[in-house]
């Protein structure tokens, strides 16, 4: 019997991202073409990432996928769009000559895990699809047009194909060829910038981004106004704030854009409310803290859920975390309260304490992940980090 050809596999990681100019609304549901451009910050993979292994073998009978250890339907249309597009690009690139490259007719097995808590409410689909597309591209030797493919998995995923600060041009063409992501500045550009993810205790599952934005496009005139008349100017201004590392203007615009996005959700009919009481308390707290100092030292942004993402500079992290602990005293719920980059405890002055607006609200925030701006997707070389075993099935979780 001829020796079995071993499987060929690649393992990669990809980051999540948080938008400072929000994407909300599609002009084409199938190709995932947005009604406005958006801009985001890529978060560091040391704290939040997706890892994916993709393998092909002559012995595989069908394409299969496992997410966080559980087998999922490989026929999902967004997953199929990504697989089909990568295989198409691979075919185009090879144009007839297969050489040493992996045969396109072989079936693929894919395993993917998120190392961040689902409760963090962070766009896990962004990191997930970015990682899927990047890993398949490595496997099949495809290099270009990757953000265009990732976009077809989830809109925000196209921005996770790059590190640092990334814009997604809405584009104009009906085929989406110009609806792509591009780096505005690399991760090394603003080393003092810090990001705190405040995971609040959510009461219920919010409306998904995909269905929420569809209802907004159908019913909100504010969203139409935002997309046509507000976002173009904000994109240019945000790129300037980043280039000049102007935290004051960056923070203010980030907060205004988050607020306008949530205003369009409320203008949707029936209305969508992603923020909860804790989110609103965080908003007041940020404004009080900034008012106390007479400048923008911290800024919030919220996606389609109640968790806050705070931007600040390194010099402010310790004090602001102490402020959070003062207003939201941690409850022993089995979670470590501070995760990620180290934070030093500080004693707040009586003056700062008396400037804080509210009574303590124990347990309102479950935990904080402190992170920073990070790089784009990466290939992992270490064999022990592969998620599929030599039999092409997920390795047992250790
Ligand atoms: C509020 O990218 O999750 O996070 O394209 O339907 O997959 P689909 O939606 P998704 O929407 C993200 C919306 C947002 C804002 C943003 O990330 O820009």
Give the helix tally: 9
As for the CATH topology of the largest domain, it is Ribosomal Protein S5, domain 2
Q: Could you give the count of β-strands? A: 17
Structural class: alpha+beta
> Spatial order of the strands in the main sheet?
8-7-9-6-1-17
How helical, in percent, are the residues? 25-40%
CA distance, first residue to last residue: 35 Å
What's the alpha carbon Rg, rounded to whole Å? 22 Å
CATH architecture of the largest domain: 2-Layer Sandwich
What does this protein look like?
InterPro entries: GHMP_kinase_C_sf, Mev_decarb, Mev_diP_decarb, MVD-like_N, Mvd1_C, Ribosomal_Su5_D2-typ_SF, Ribsml_uS5_D2-typ_fold_subgr. Residues 14-181 form the Diphosphomevalonate decarboxylase-like N-terminal domain. There is one protein chain. This protein is of the alpha+beta class and 398 residues long. 33% of the residues lie in helices and 22% in strands. The protein is built from nine helices and 17 strands. It has helices spanning 77-94, 124-140, 146-151, 209-219, 221-243, 247-267, 277-293, 314-327, 350-355; strands spanning 8-15, 17-21, 26-28, 33-34, 38-42, 49-57, 64-67, 70-72, 107-114, 165-168, 181-185, 193-200, 298-301, 308-313, 338-340, 365-372, 378-380. Strands 8-7-9-6-1-17 form a six-stranded mixed beta sheet. It has a five-stranded mixed beta sheet with strand order 13-14-12-16-15. A four-stranded antiparallel beta sheet has the order 2-5-10-11. A hairpin with a 6-residue loop joins β13 (298-301) and β14. α1 packs parallel to α2 (124-140). The two termini are 35 Å apart. The mean pLDDT is 93. Residues 19, 22-24, 32, 38, 123, 125, 154-156, 209-210, 303-304 line the site of ligand DP6.
């Amino acid at each position: 019997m001829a020796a079995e050809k071993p499987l060929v596999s690649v393992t990669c990681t990809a980051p999540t991202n948080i938008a400072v100019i929000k994407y909300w609304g599609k002009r084409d549901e199938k190709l995932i073409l947005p009604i406005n451009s958006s801009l985001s910050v890529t978060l560091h993979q040391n704290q939040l990432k997706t890892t994916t292994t993709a393998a092909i073998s002559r012995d595989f009978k069908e394409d299969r996928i496992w997410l966080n250890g559980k087998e999922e339907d490989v026929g999902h249309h967004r997953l199929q769009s990504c697989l089909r597009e990568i295989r198409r690009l691979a075919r185009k690139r090879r144009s007839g000559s297969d050489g040493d490259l992996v045969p396109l007719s072989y079936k693929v097995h894919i395993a993917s895990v998120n190392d961040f808590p689902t409760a963090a409410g962070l766009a896990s689909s962004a990191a997930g699809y970015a990682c899927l597309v990047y890993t398949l591209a490595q496997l099949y030797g495809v290099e270009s047009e990757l953000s265009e493919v990732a976009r077809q998995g989830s809109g925000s995923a196209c921005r996770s194909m790059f590190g640092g600060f990334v814009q997604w041009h809405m584009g104009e063409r009906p085929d989406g060829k110009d609806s792509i992501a591009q780096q505005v500045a690399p991760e090394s550009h603003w080393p003092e910038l810090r990001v705190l993810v405040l995971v609040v205790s959510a009461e219920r599952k919010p409306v998904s981004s995909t269905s929420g934005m569809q209802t907004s496009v159908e019913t909100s005139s504010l969203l139409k106004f935002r997309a046509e008349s507000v976002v173009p100017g904000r994109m240019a201004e945000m790129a300037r704030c980043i280039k000049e590392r102007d935290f004051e203007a960056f923070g203010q615009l980030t907060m205004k854009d988050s607020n306008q996005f949530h205003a369009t959700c409320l203008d949707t009919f029936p209305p969508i409310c992603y923020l909860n009481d804790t989110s609103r308390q965080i908003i007041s707290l940020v404004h009080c803290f900034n008012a106390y100092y007479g400048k923008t030292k911290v800024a919030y942004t919220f996606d389609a859920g109640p968790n806050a993402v705070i931007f600040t500079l390194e010099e402010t992290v310790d004090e602001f975390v102490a402020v959070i602990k003062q207003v939201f005293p941690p409850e022993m719920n089995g979670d470590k309260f501070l995760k990620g980059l180290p934070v030093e405890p500080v004693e707040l002055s009586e003056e700062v304490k008396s400037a804080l607006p509210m009574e303590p609200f124990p347990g309102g925030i479950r935990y904080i992940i402190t992170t920073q701006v990070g790089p784009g997707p990466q290939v992992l070389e270490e064999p022990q980090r592969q998620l599929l075993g030599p039999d092409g099935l997920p390795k047992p979780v250790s």
